[in-house]
Amino acid sequence: MTGSVIDLGELRHGPDPDPLPRPPRANGRQLRYALALLLVLVTVGAAAAPPPRRTVLTLPVRPGSDVLIDGDLLLTIDSQYLPASQRRLNAFRLPGGERVWHAPLPAEAKYWGITPLAEMLLLTGYEIGPKSDSTLTVALDRATGAYRWQQPGSPRKLADGNLLLQSGRDDEPASLRVVDPCCGTMRWQLLNAVNWIDVRDAGPGADRVVLTRVDGQTEVRDAATGTVLARADLRPPGGGPPDFVQVLDELLLTIGGEPTTITAYGLDRLDRRWTSTSAPVEFATDCGPVLCVRTSANEMQAIDVATGELRWSSDRWRWGWPYEGRLMVSVSGSGALERYLVLDALTGRQVADLGQWELTQLQVGGPPVGIRRHPDGGMVVGKLDIRAGQVRVLDVLPDAVGDCQAIVDHLLCVGANGSYQLWTLPD
Q: Which of 159, 175, 240, 340 registers the highest number of CB atoms within 10 A of its CB?
């Protein structure tokens, strides 16, 4: 089915108006008509090529498995409901789905993630034992599944190519280890040292680590070497540690105190830039040119990160995601569906209504992928173009019933027979 571009324009308060393409069905009159049309085309020797067939791959994957696509490999960790001794990491070659290798999981843990890094795969999970919420990362060879090394903590790639591992339970100070990904060799570490850790992502990986202790002492370190770049007491008014610490590009923001105060500091010197007050804050996140703050009054506020000025506020939006100077916000829908709208980030002015979707992907640098049920069965798949304020309907998957996740340029869904099926998404 060829994709179409639907400009949804401004907000409409009636039922969702998006036209839905009909999934392909072959029954009765439609089948007879298709056969007659095919006979005519063959008779007259039509030159037009047939439309491309949808590429669908049924995977030998159990429900509840973790799935990742890394280049030409599809990787799965068997369902956590299997006994630990039976669980495997499986690698299949795309596009055909041939099994390349499978390997036993090298440590008893409830694995929840797979991360590709260079020529390795990093498996992360919770160790099984007295400290069942302690995290563990295991490195395996990408080509063969062979064991390389393991370390405590969950991983984050650094800008210099090394790996930051953070470990520690909620009721104890966190530890940091920076290791060489080739073999797990230690570069630097801090054990049981801090209460909260944040990083600045410089694109290819993190280049700054911010360490905050319960007494309010905050350090900024170079992630590659562990060198302390700045240290200061950043306790908010009234004393006590900040409720939130947020890194935004060149700024470090602290939120907390009585009354609730938002203070911005230069990241590398911790010099104060601006201060503003707010209602008590429940969540805060990076929304591009603004800081999105969710208050206890069920209101979303947009704070200008350059000045600390309150740019706008609204109790209509649940949350927001930045994209090229615009902001996609959500409002409650029905069931798993939410309605998504596009705003100008600095003014809060509504630009477009993207309709109701269940998001399967919020890809950095690319448009989100959404799905929703078609009234005649199957799932409608669309790309939400936040910058253009439009939705491009990609396909209707007639055999999909839900539990979908977008992975790179594929969509993984559970089919009507309970199996996992992988669709190649059109450009």
A: 340
Mean pLDDT of the chain: 81
Q: How far apart are CA 49 and CA 67, in angstroms?
A: 35
d(CA 113, CA 182): 19
- The per-residue pLDDT for 11 is 27
Please report, as a single letter, which amino acid is at residue 23.
Answer: P
CA distances, 269 to each of 29, 196, 222, 223, 404 (Å):
74, 19, 12, 15, 45
Question: Which tokens sit at 293?
Answer: 């703050």
Classify residue 86 by its DSSP letter.
Answer: G
> Which CA distances in Å does 198 have to 26, 164, 174, 195, 208?
55, 11, 12, 10, 8
What are the strands, taking DSSP E only, across 78-227?
Answer: 88-93, 98-104, 109-117, 120-127, 135-141, 147-152, 154-157, 163-167, 174-179, 186-194, 196-201, 206-212, 217-222
Residue 176 has pLDDT above 50, yes or no: yes
Over residues 234-252, the mean pLDDT reads 87
**pLDDT > 80? residue 385:** yes
Q: Specify the higher pLDDT residue, 13 or 30.
A: 30
pTM exceeds 0.85, yes or no? no
384 C-beta neighbours (distance < 10 Å), count: 25
Percentage of residues in the chain with pLDDT exceeding 70? Answer: 83
Dihedral sign for Cα atoms in the order 329, 332, 336, 339: negative
Place of tokens 């063969």: 144
**155 alpha-carbon distance from chain centroid:** 15
Q: Which two tokens stand for residue 140?
A: 């395996």
What does the pLDDT read at residue 418?
Answer: 79
Distances (CA, A) of 110 to 9, 37, 80: 45, 55, 7
